[in-house]
Design goal:
Length: about 350
């Protein structure tokens, strides 16, 4: 799968990033998201693959493009057997977030990315559009920290794993009312809290690399993004756990579903019989061959955003593979016709 798809999925996230980056700082988060969705879908349908969206922009009625269940790629066409190789005809599952951090893009803030994950059919957990309690940590702490622990217990374990004092740790938490007690507890341990308004996929990926000065992600965010994060952390060997949150009273911002009871019914209809199960990265992204790709829309401490110049456009993309065990940073210059100048930096 990697040999046939790696370059193409890089171009998929690049095109989504470029499209939304044209609206960076314009205050139009819906427009940025729509532009990314259209560009991602257009490029995806040019790929030699037989893909199915398992995490996307919503159900068919609410999302006309990249909806859950939509088939994408050249090899979904009626004449696929004539234009695709047997390898390309193998079904794959795709999870997408064409503009992760729409507010970050709209207001020109760091950390917005175009992102997707790919695995063989059945290799990505089809998460309901609920929330998820998440814990991400570096590879050194994999299997040692646990989402069932208190934040204090996990910070003690993390400090020991990383050979640091607790006051040398930085934890990313989304700035939400529901996290008031969590933030207070982290600070009481002497650890620093880095609050983010959006974009917890990128925040978690920081934990997978040394040198980012981010040592954990804690708290509740969207469940679909949790699956995409799990794919990346599985490939990087980092720690990730997620537990679905189905009670609106916990998140305090509303959920899809009328009530806790309705949400439980929906989970059961999706085959989720243990609503309180704690999932590992390997369970959320269970495929043998998992790939993750993210292209920067706005710059962050781990990925450059889209840069426009007179002769073209420059992008940076991270693509990670569980098959080849690689994490590649791909720097691309997209040239205009007859460019007068090519910007090197």
């Amino acid at each position: 799968m990697e040999n046939t798809l790696a370059l193409e999925i890089i171009e998929v996230v690049e095109q989504a990033a470029i499209a939304s980056a044209r609206l960076t700082g314009m205050g139009d988060k819906d427009g940025a998201d729509e532009a990314a969705v259209e560009a991602m879908r257009e490029r995806m349908n040019q790929c030699h693959m037989r893909g199915r969206i398992v995490i996307g922009e919503g159900e068919r009625d609410d999302a006309p493009m990249l909806f859950i269940g939509e088939e994408v790629g050249i090899c979904t066409q009626p004449n696929a057997a004539e234009v695709c190789t047997p390898e390309e005809l193998v079904e794959i599952d795709i999870a997408v977030d064409p503009c992760e951090g729409t507010n970050l893009c709209a207001y020109g803030q760091p950390g917005s990315i175009a992102v997707l994950a790919v695995a063989e059919k059945g290799g990505l957990f089809a998460a309901p559009d609920f929330y998820m309690n998440k814990l991400a940590a570096p590879p050194d702490a994999k299997g040692k920290v646990d989402i069932s622990n208190s934040a204090t217990e996990n910070l003690k374990i993390l400090a020991e794993c990383l050979d640091r004092a607790m006051d040398e740790l930085t934890v990313v938490v989304m700035k939400r009312e529901r996290h008031a007690d969590l933030i207070k507890e982290i600070r009481s341990c002497g650890s620093r809290v880095q609050l983010i308004s959006d974009g917890d996929v990128g925040a978690a990926i920081n934990c997978g690399f040394a040198g980012t000065n981010i040592h954990a992600l804690m708290g509740i965010g969207a469940a679909p993004e949790g699956v995409i994060t799990a794919a990346a952390m599985k490939c990087l060997g980092g720690h990730f756990q997620g537990q679905l949150i189905y009670d609106p009273a916990i998140v305090k911002t509303g959920l899809i579903g009328e009530s806790k009871e309705k949400n439980l019914e929906r989970m059961k209809s999706m085959g989720i019989n243990d609503p309180d199960k704690i999932y590992t990265a390997e369970e959320l992204a269970s495929g043998n061959n998992v790939m993750f790709a993210a292209s920067g829309i706005t710059s962050s401490n781990w990925l450059e955003g889209v840069r426009f110049f007179g002769g073209g456009i420059r992008t940076q993309t991270l693509v990670i593979s569980s098959q080849s065990k690689t994490a590649r940073f791909v720097d691309t210059i997209h040239l205009k016709d007859n460019p007068k100048r090519i910007q090197l930096k």
